[in-house]
Each structure stands twice: as C-alpha cells, then as structure tokens.
Amino acid sequence: MPSTRDIIHIDEELCNGCGQCILDCAEGALQLVDGKARLVGEIYCDGLGACLQGCPTGALTIEKRQADAFDEAAVEELLASQGEAPHAEAAPAPAQPFPVAGGCPGHAAMSLSPSAPASASEEDDWPTPSQLGHWPIKLQLLSPQAPFLKGADLILLADCAAASLPDLHRRFLPGRAIALACPKLDDAQAHIDKLAELLATGGMRSLTIVHMEVPCCSGLNHIVDQAMQRSGAKLPVGEMVISRKGGILGKRNLPWSLAA
User: Fold this and answer.
1) Does domain 3-81 have CATH number 3.30.70.20?
2) Domain boundaries, the chain
3) Backbone phi, then psi, for 31, in 5-degree steps?
C-alpha cells in the first residue's frame, strides 16, 4: 500500500546521464533510460539517499511523497536477476590523480603508456601497437587540468576521420594529445565553450584540426575559430583534410595561426 515516505526525486533538466547514481545505488533502483537516470520502481528505493553523494549536477534529491513501500525481498530478486550480490558493499573509488570530468568513473582522466611492439606470436592478430597516450579522448570530457595537455601538440580529430585513417596510431598519435568531436551531430556551442576553456588554461603548444573532406566536417574550423577568439590564445593552428578512403588531401596553416 502507498504511504508517505522518503523517496528519490530526479530532476531530468539537471541530469546529464553520467550514471554515477546507478553505481552508488546498492538496491539497483536506478537505470539510464534515453540518457537520463530513472527510478526502476518505487519498491526498490529505500529513500536513504546513497545515490546523492556522487551526482555532479545536483539532479538527485530526497522528497517526501506518497509511494509504494520499500520491498527488500523484491530488491534481492532484482539484484539476483542482474547477477549482483544483494546489498554488496561498494568498493571504494580509486584515488584520481586529477579531476574526473562529468562525474562518471569512465571519464577519469589518466596518462597512458604506448604499447610495446607486438611479439612475433601476436603479429598476425594485432600487428600495430596502441600509441594512445591518455584517456579520455572526447573533447567534452577533457579537463584543462589534465597533465597530458601541458605543452602538448593537440589534434582535434573528427570522429569519422578517426575511423578512416588506416595508420592513425602509427602516424598521428605518437607524442600527441587528441580530442574527438563531430561538428555535425554534436553540440557545436558546447564544443566552442570547452575548447575555449582548454585553450585558455590547458597550456597546449599547438593545435591541428584533422577532418574529413565532406563539407559538414569543416565545421571544426568554425569551432576552433570561435574558441581561439574567445580564449585569446596564441598558438600555431593547422588543418589536415582526409579523404573517405583515408588519404591526406591537403594540409595548411590556418589564418589565425602564428605560423601562417
């Protein structure tokens, strides 16, 4: 029977879909639906608010309202169906060397060591060792405080270009930082804001835009132009255009580059 009790409330306007609350909820009462945290069912929420602690936007609060009673047996059945131990203690989060962007554990920034060349027995399966030097790699997830940006040559890489370049790791990644973005499907203004922040405080040495030959992809140039003007940054900026088959069609220094 419904009764007045404490239960979670989710402000969908504030929720950014990071999923941290799902990790923090020992009862499995929350899921991501259409990019937003949602309550699976009132009977699974104990109203204690453990999920509030990690929310980076303040989207979660506890409210007192009419709701079905918390059902511990139903929680155990739910967790069993998900292959989880009922009421397992969450492991403490590992210490982060620098800020986590967006609040999601998968966004934790870290430097990586490029892989050593594959052994002879691995050559046929995976001949090219990874040269990725950091994580995360999406533009919106990069933190201006990330050590790997200091003095870095940053490549702003269109998503499609990353898939088209056959020798991305061998030719483009060694010794460089990268940021992935799509000017057509992503929020361009959000990219301008983020890039301006990185340019103003990230301490990069240079920036190179790598995009596809298709017209929409050149929107990365506009994003960089606006971010450069907003940040007041002074550093060399280059552009490289990639064909659909992965060839380099041309490269140049752009007008706002000191190297032009």
Assistant:
1) yes
2) 3-81, 108-114+129-253
3) -140, 160
Q: H or E segment at 252?
A: strand 248-253
Asked if omega into 92 is within 30° of 0 (cis), the reply is no
Could you tell me how many residues make up the chain?
A: 260
Bridge partners for 36 per DSSP? 33
Per-residue pLDDT tens over the stretch 190-238: 999 999 999 998 899 999 999 999 888 989 999 999 999 999 998 999 9
Is the CA virtual torsion 137, 152, 162, 172 positive or negative? negative
* Sign of the Cα pseudo-torsion (107, 83, 87, 28, in order): positive
Largest CA distance in the chain: 72
Which amino acid is present at 47?
A: G
> Hey, what are 21's tokens?
């609350």
Question: DSSP code of 226?
Answer: H
Other Cβ atoms less than 10 A from the Cβ of 12: the count is 12
What sections of 82-214 are H helices per DSSP? 159-164, 188-201
The domains spanning 3-81 and 108-114+129-253 adopt the same CATH topology: no
15-53 pLDDT per residue, tens: 988 888 887 888 889 988 878 889 999 999 999 888 987
The tokens for 59 are 């989207």
The domain made up of 108-114+129-253 has a fold known as Rossmann fold (3.40.50)
